[in-house]
Amino acid sequence: MISAEYVQLMARYNRWQNGSLYEAASSLSDAQRREDKGAFFGSIHGTLSHLIWADQMWMNRFAETGPPKASSVAASKDAFGSWDELSKERQVFDGVIVDWAAALEDKWLEGDLTWYSGLSGRELTKPKGMLIVHMFNHQTHHRGQVHCLLTQFGAKPEDTDIPFVAF
Questions:
Q1: The domain defined by 4-162 carries CATH number 1.20.120.450
Q2: DSSP helix/strand/coil, 62
Q3: How do the domains of the chain map onto residue ranges?
Q4: CA–CA distance, 160 with 141 (Å, rounded to integer)
Q5: Residue 57: Cβ within 10 Å count
Q6: Using alpha carbons only, what angle is made at residue 60 by residues 59 and 66, rounded to the nearest 5 degrees?
Q7: Are 47 and 40 within 8 A, CB to CB?
């Protein structure tokens, strides 16, 4: 389905896009970043916090990197109290994802992963490749929401097209 090379590209793309969004969001006030604008996780801060939570949850399943701070999807938007804490954790964890992807071998992508899903309240088994695609798709989905919220405040994140990845 996918290759280690694909995972490496998407890990680098994820880091680049997060850098762009965090740089644009840094130009806003904390009140603007926390303003509930009707996104699924309310605000820019809440959405970005949820994204780290989800990445940490999936990476813990893929590579046993340790569980996220928040214990649930609902609590994920409030997992990071300050912008500095959120920004630092994003940088660090993007490095974790990039390093994991760099060491990934195609063979690992074969087969299934079984985990307990707190969201569905049961054990699930799915193909590893599909789950990795889901993780990157989930990132893109919520980053798109944040991109929209940032532009509503007049901030200007970089382009989001993969062929223009700046790394």
A1: yes
A2: helix
A3: 4-162
A4: 12
A5: 21
A6: 125
A7: yes
**What stretch of H or E contains 112?**
strand 112-117
**DSSP state letter for 135:** H
Q: Which residue type sits at 8?
A: Q
Tokens of 49: 């916090």
79: tokens are 């997992």
Tokens of 161: 């097209």
Give pLDDT tens digits along the chain (167 positions). 899 999 999 999 999 999 999 999 999 999 999 999 999 999 999 999 999 999 999 999 999 999 999 989 999 999 999 999 999 999 999 999 999 999 999 999 999 999 999 888 899 999 999 999 999 999 999 999 999 999 999 999 988 888 876 65
Both tokens assigned to 75: 């609590």
Is 112 in contact with 104 (CB distance < 8 Å)? no
Q: Which two tokens stand for residue 20?
A: 């762009």
Nearest by Cα to 41 from 160, 145, 155, 156: 145
Helix H segments across 3-127?
4-26, 30-34, 44-63, 73-76, 83-103
Cα torsion 57, 63, 65, 66 to 10°: value is 60
Q: What is the pTM of this model?
A: 0.94
DSSP annotation of 117: E
